[in-house]
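It is worth pausing here to work through a concrete case rather than discussing structure prediction in the abstract. The textbook approach is simple: state the sequence, then state the predicted structure, then interpret. We follow exactly that order.
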Amino acid sequence: MQHSSRSTAHGRDVGDELRAQRERAGLKGTELAELLGWSPGTVAHLEAGSRGTSEAQIAYYLGICGTDPATFRRVLDLHGEKNRDCLVRTHEPGLPDELRTLIRHESTATTIYNYESILLPGLLQTAAYAQTLITQSADLRPEEVGVRVRTRMIRQQMLRRPNAPDYVFYVYEPSLRTVVGDRRVMEDQLMHLVLTANWRNVSIRVIPHNAPVSTSLRGQFMMMDYESHRSVTYVENEVASLFADSPEIVATHRLSLERFDQIALDEEESRSLLTTLAGDYGEPRGADDAGEPDLA
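Step two, the predicted structure:
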């Protein structure tokens, strides 16, 4: 029982730290809830140090409060200690450091640009699409896959909060024709893109497959602009993640964005293509048709 009491104390410590960060940011609980797109009860739940709180939720909370990196890491580590001391544990692993940092950067950005060449951006993925990708692309236990998928869905809440950043997504057409999961997963995913493209702060621009070949079309990256400090470019691959705010690196990726703006379909044309492809994935298949759809 003493062990359980220590865990409760840790829970209060985490809640106190969160509350202190909210107050430092000059926000009331209801104001923070509105910024997060959560109910006031969810904010109160976190500040009470209640069990069942995910690391991604805490990271998102701290990011919206503009918490400095050192405090950000300390509070998340404290949350991890609470889970380790608890007698009843979910056994969910913590978030990778690069994902913690990405959530913090995304939470305070004013504009986010995202380019993907092969797959769809994580902020636009449905849960089924994300689960298929994460399961197939990483050597993770089932519970770890669940954590990654839930974290991705929590990150997407940023798109809907009242003061959400402006988002510009450049999606290379081949990624829309790459089947992830099955036809139903892809149909739902494409319809999700159509609906999301109608949100006031979201622009989805499709770069057609016959666009002029350019080195800019290789790889993937995200650029985040801020009111109070320099823009940050985020580049991720299988072995490393890079956060860079050097003027040279940012300028290079800014040129790529300008190139994308020139060769991409406009928003209306992009929505039309997304709708057409969603319909193609939804077409009925014969019983003997075991192949993937011909979307070329």
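Step three, interpretation. The chain is about 55% helix and 10% strand. The longest strand covers residues 166-172.
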